[in-house]
Design goal:
Six copies of one chain form a homohexamer. By secondary structure, the first copy, chain A, is mostly helical. Chain A has two domains: 52 residues, no CATH class; 72 residues, AhpD-like (Up-down Bundle). The first copy, chain A, contains six helices and no strands. In chain A, helix 1 packs across helix 2 and helix 3 packs antiparallel against helix 4. Chains in contact: A-B, A-C, A-D, A-E, A-F, B-C, B-D, B-E, B-F, C-D, C-E, C-F, D-E, D-F, E-F. At the B-F interface, helix 5 and helix 6 of B face helix 5 and helix 6 of F. Chains A, B, C, D, E, F: This is Carboxymuconolactone decarboxylase family protein. Chains A, B, C, D, E, F: It holds the Pfam family CMD.
Chain lengths: 125, 125, 125, 125, 125, 125
């Protein structure tokens, strides 16, 4: 049963954040192995797996929040990739960034767009 | 042309945040009348009016960001209403709040849920 | 096994944040019953139960962080109580608040002290 | 010599934030008397007393920062009063709030204007 | 008329943030061309152009806010340059940074001073 | 007497943050020499020297707060070293980071762990 939280989480984590998520997990295993398990089990196994909100909407929420907070660039990069992986278009991601200019200020929007450009370039979008 | 930014913005603002938006606008007219115009023109006339992201997704992004920031309760209340007005279900809003526990911490999620409950109660949901 | 995460968490949650934690749990059950379970299981069942850091040090960390963030007053109140419950003195809590003036600014320290005074008064300290 | 830091600070603190500063000091004396001394000595005795920036510019900086941070309403209220006390006009304060909409988002600006209106009303401005 | 918001904004943007602003605009044109227009039109065309607060005071407010927020280093660099361009002295900027130690903590002040030193060095100040 | 605040502070600063603190002080002396004095006198001479909270608990509080804020990586690095210098184990620091996942979100915890790993590696821990 408990194992299932990890298994369910890993399936969704791989689907959403793919290879970048694996990097995060590998480096966690070294310094805080139990936190690697928690990262798979709670955010992905418990939350993302829930049926009440589709994965694309979940990634819109996460990209918006991380852009607004402005202090989590590595995770924003992972979730811009995640948003693209679950069906967001490049255009939609740019719109989210612009909109964050309203709610968190122009610097948050500009820095979000800088991160988005890096992700788009890496994927040849 | 310039007039249109206000007109376009007011239509969308009324559609999204309705009566609560009117309260904000009325109280702004007193202390900073030009800012009332800017509030209609930039967030709603320039941003929300753009075709690249549907209104429901825009409200998911805004509710997520304001919950994560945790320092804008009046605006979060307005946009939980806005999310409901453009098609989000109560369930979807609760899911966004829970998910923000992952990205901004449990206090952000709990305070977001408290605000959501107030909005749901006021609308008899 | 999975049940144990909740049971383990509830024991620690009751020990640390007592009656105030029950209030939080009760109001969550209404709006987001699964989040009530997650709140018991992840923060308390998974994290606070770990042997690597004693409960008093954990509450020092939490009170410091919530004071520095400055946007989670209800949770700060809960954890000032929690700190007292697991062995912090009133004096130690005041010292943490003062020290946060260095790392998050005087307003964070002053607002933390205001919240601490409310808790101390309610407990007749 | 050390006494002078308190004396110098108290003179400037009284000049800038006046009666509201006294309230803060009185309530601090109860819970953290040494922090009352530090509040007078460091921010006002050490920083505000320095010749490199005039008091009006200092209050512009403080009002801008507290509006942008958005989690220190009691201190923002004190410093809107302070800004008025050292020569800022009501109009200038409103401009600072509007400008923070650019750098910290519209919610920060709107909440800053709400606090400003309360201060202006209390002073019959 | 609408064109004028861009023209007015571009004049002020060039005056305040000069070459660094051009870099921002050029990179925006690639990923979000309409946001380049909004960046010129709203912050500079609508806000900075207003007569109620002089440009030097506006840059003091912006430098203070970005230093306090601590999550917008590229924009802080642009506006330390902007502050120097509209009449702030090196000394005044250092004073703003030190003062932010009071309102946002010593780390914010120290990181602001690090950014200021980079700007001063690049301008041989 | 006043001299003593600097002397007392320097002793504690050297004990807690050692060589890294010296680097900070040296670079401050260049751009803001009086702020170097204030950094020694207020955080270390006034606050850390106080008897009400032991140095290990103070560093737990500071590491927790800086991890939660997420916008002060250089200072977090200094204080992870500081925590180790005054008796925290590697394990305890990892526990603090994991716990901040609860109060400030998983990105804050992950970025804190990344910084911790850099410090541990540099010390061959």
């Amino acid at each position: 049963m408990c194992k299932n939280r990890y298994e369910v989480g890993l399936d969704i984590m791989n689907k959403v954040v793919g290879e970048l998520g694996s990097h995060t997990r590998e480096s966690l295993k070294e310094i805080a192995p139990e936190f690697e398990e928690m990262l798979v089990e709670f955010p992905f196994g418990d939350i993302y797996s829930r049926p009440g909100l589709d994965l694309k909407s979940r990634e819109i929420a996460t990209v918006a929040a991380l852009t607004a907070l402005g202090n989590a660039t590595p995770q924003l990069k992972v979730h811009i990739n995640g948003a693209l992986n679950v069906g967001c278009t490049k255009k939609e991601i740019v719109e989210i960034m612009m909109q964050m200019g309203v709610y968190a200020g122009f610097p948050a929007a500009l820095n979000g767009l800088t991160t988005a450009r890096e992700v788009f370039n890496a994927r040849n979008l």
